[in-house]
Design brief:
By secondary structure, this protein is α+β, with helices and mostly antiparallel strands. 22% of the residues lie in helices and 26% in strands. A 7-stranded antiparallel sheet has the order 1-12-7-14-4-3-2. It has a 4-stranded antiparallel sheet with strand order 5-13-8-11, with no helix packed on it. Strands 6-15 form a two-stranded antiparallel sheet. The structure holds fe (ii) ion. The site of fe (ii) ion has 3 residues, from loops.
Length: 278
C-alpha cells in the first residue's frame, strides 16, 4: 500500500499524509450520520446539564462514553446563563468513542481493507481499534487542543498506538488544522492517563518540554486525506476562529502483539472484545 519512500518518511517524521484516501461519497455518508446522531442527542435526557455535582456528572458522562456513543459540547458553546449560544448542531465538540463498533455507518467507513494494509506498512501486524472520535472543530468556537501525545491515552508495551486521522473537510491554518513536531516521536512519553475504576489522573513521566511552536509544522490537508501518526508524535491544534468547521474522524489503533495497559481508560472484555479494522 505504501511506497518505501512513504514508509521512510513515516519513520523519519512520525507521520504521513495520504491525499484522496476517502471519496466524497464516503465522507458525505459519515457526515450525514454524525449530523443525525447530534440531531437525536438530548442533552437534558443525558443528564449533562445537571447543576449538582457538575464535576462528578461530567466525569461520569465521559467515563461511560468509553464503549458507547456520546456527544460532547464545545467548552465555548454556552452563554453566561448556561444557554447554548448557537444551534445544537454547531455546539458539539465531538462524538465518541465506539462508533466504529456500534454504528453501522461508522463501521462501514472504518472497516476499510486498505487500512489493514496501511497499518501493516506502519508496523501494526495485528491491528486493534480501540477508539473512534468524530471531531467537529466548530466555526468560531472550536476549542484548542494543547500539545499532547496520543500514547498518553493508549499505553502499550512497547509503544504501538497509531492514529488514523481522516480529514472530512479541508483542514487549514484558518480553521484550526493540526500542528506536529516532525521527528518528535523519537522523544519520550511525557505523561500517561490512568484509570482505576472511576478515578482518572494524569501521571507525569518525563520533564522533556513540549516542542517550541517555532519548530512545529501545520498539517494542512484536503478533505479525503488520511493522516497517520505515531503515538509519541507531539501534536496540537489551535482554536478555530474562522467561519468554517473542520470535521475530522479518528481511529486509535494498537498492535495485538504488544501489552495493552490495564490502566488505560478504555478497556474491553469478552462481552465486547476489541477488534481489527474488518
Ligand atoms: Fe491527539
Amino acid at each position: 500500500m505504501l511506497t518505501d519512500a512513504q514508509k521512510q518518511q513515516y519513520q523519519r517524521d512520525g507521520y504521513i499524509v495520504l491525499p484522496d484516501f476517502k471519496s466524497a461519497a464516503e465522507i458525505a455518508a459519515l457526515r450525514a450520520r454524525a449530523a443525525q446522531i447530534v440531531n437525536e442527542f438530548d442533552p437534558k435526557g443525558a443528564g449533562i446539564f445537571s447543576t449538582v455535582e457538575q464535576e462528578k456528572t461530567t466525569d461520569d458522562y465521559f467515563l461511560r462514553s468509553d464503549n458507547t456513543i456520546r456527544c460532547f459540547f464545545e467548552e465555548e458553546a454556552f452563554g453566561p446563563g448556561g444557554e447554548l449560544k448557537q444551534d445544537k448542531s454547531l455546539s458539539i465538540n465531538k462524538i465518541g468513542h465506539a462508533m466504529h463498533d456500534l454504528d453501522p455507518v461508522f463501521r462501514t467507513f472504518s472497516a476499510d481493507a486498505r487500512l489493514v494494509a496501511v497499518a501493516r506498512d506502519l508496523g501494526l501486524n495485528d491491528a486493534q481499534v480501540w477508539q473512534s472520535m468524530y471531531i467537529f472543530k466548530q466555526p468560531g468556537i472550536g476549542g484548542e487542543v494543547r500539545w499532547h501525545q496520543d500514547a498518553t491515552y493508549f499505553d502499550t508495551d512497547p509503544v504501538s498506538v497509531t492514529t488514523f486521522w481522516f480529514a472530512l473537510e479541508d483542514a487549514t491554518l484558518e480553521n484550526g488544522c493540526m500542528w506536529a513536531e516532525p521527528g518528535g516521536h523519537r522523544g519520550p512519553m511525557r505523561e500517561r492517563f490512568l484509570r482505576t475504576g472511576d478515578d482518572v489522573r494524569m501521571e507525569k513521566l518525563s520533564d522533556m518540554p513540549w516542542p517550541d511552536d517555532s519548530t512545529a509544522v501545520p498539517l494542512e490537508c484536503k478533505a479525503g486525506s488520511l493522516v497517520c501518526f505515531h503515538g509519541l508524535l507531539p501534536h496540537y491544534s489551535a482554536p478555530n476562529r474562522s467561519a468554517f468547521s473542520r470535521h475530522a474522524y479518528t481511529l486509535h489503533v494498537t498492535d495485538a502483539a504488544t501489552e495493552y495497559s490495564p490502566l488505560n481508560w478504555i478497556q474491553r472484555d469478552a462481552s465486547f472484545p476489541v477488534r481489527g479494522f474488518l
